[in-house]
Specification:
This protein is an alpha/beta fold. The protein is built from 13 helices and seven strands. The protein has a seven-stranded mixed sheet, sandwiched between helices. Helix 4 runs parallel beside helix 11 and helix 7 packs across helix 8. It starts with 9 loop residues before the first helix and ends with a strand.
Length: 291
């Protein structure tokens, strides 16, 4: 089946997880199965593994990819899926979470994630939810917009307030390019497209990305077997900071720690991968083992 999304840091993920035949696997952001397929090739344990994704398009792809295999595929966000796993009392030898946006989400203009292609202001990973990028841009008060631009887009406070004011005065906006072109026109020269941080901020707000990560991280040890490994891939400093802080806290109590770090420093993509998959540029991998 055609590969829709190139998994980042694939060899590095396999190294830190160390899949062995018969081991169980929980993929909290399975996407289009890039990481999962390689892990499952090594474990051959489909019936005791679970693939999760909140994006229905990805879930339907996975169902086709693993048609006939006794693997559980769940359409759910990773926080609620972990809660259900805990409720059922299931635990796994390996857990993976890749917090990045998938290539099909970015590349399909109708999903509204990218400022480089024209599409509706959507950005929902879960198409069933009500909150969209259009709702954020066109209905949020100026102060709230400035707050998310600064907090989630890491824009300078003055710039966040200025852009929020400009957007409120010019709205409504209907499409991604309309908004991106407006931001560019209202911004000075920058090596990075001026809309990059604003689109990131809106996307994080729409999908509650950081909130889900914060609520999920403390639950990870509950779904790991003793000696089980967890690997987490992040794509910007806000995500990585949450993972780094949690791993540091969970591994800081000596013999009483829930986790021990597999790698103290984040693993990043090598030059060969960056040539073939430029989207790996900002990826960072952290991993830990349950004591």
């Amino acid at each position: 089946m055609e590969e829709l999304h190139k998994p980042v840091l694939l060899s590095e993920v396999l190294e830190v997880l160390g899949p062995r035949p018969g081991e169980t696997y929980l993929d909290l952001t399975a996407g289009y199965g890039g990481h999962a397929s390689k892990v499952l090739d090594l474990t051959r344990n489909y019936k005791d593994s679970v693939l999760v994704d909140r994006d229905l398009f990805a879930v339907e792809f996975l169902k086709g990819k693993y048609l006939g295999e006794p693997i559980e595929i769940v359409n759910e966000d990773f926080y609620n899926s972990v809660l259900k796993v805990i409720e059922c009392g299931n635990t796994f030898d390996m857990v993976l979470a890749d917090f990045g946006v998938s290539s099909p989400q970015l590349d399909r203009s109708e999903r509204g994630f990218s400022f480089r292609a024209d599409g509706p202001l959507d950005m929902r990973m879960d198409k069933s939810q009500e909150l969209t990028a259009g709702r954020v841009v066109n209905r949020y008060p100026e102060g709230k917009l400035a707050e998310i631009f600064e907090k989630y887009g890491e824009e300078r406070p003055g710039n966040a307030k200025r852009l929020a004011r400009e957007i409120v005065h010019a709205r409504p906006f209907e499409t991604t390019l309309e908004l991106a072109d407006f931001i560019k026109a209202k911004s000075g020269y920058s090596k990075m497209h001026p809309a990059t941080k604003i689109f990131q901020a809106i996307r994080i707000e729409v999908n509650d990305e950081l909130g889900l990560i914060e609520r999920t991280l403390p639950l990870i040890p509950k779904v790991l077997n003793t000696g089980g490994r967890v690997a987490i891939i992040t794509f910007h400093s806000l995500e990585d900071r949450l993972v780094k802080q949690y791993f540091k806290e969970a591994s800081s109590f000596g013999e009483e720690s829930e986790l021990e770090l597999i790698n103290k420093n984040p693993i990043i993509a090598g030059e060969n991968e960056l040539v073939n998959n430029p989207r790996a540029r900002s990826a960072k991998l952290r991993a830990a083992r349950k004591r």
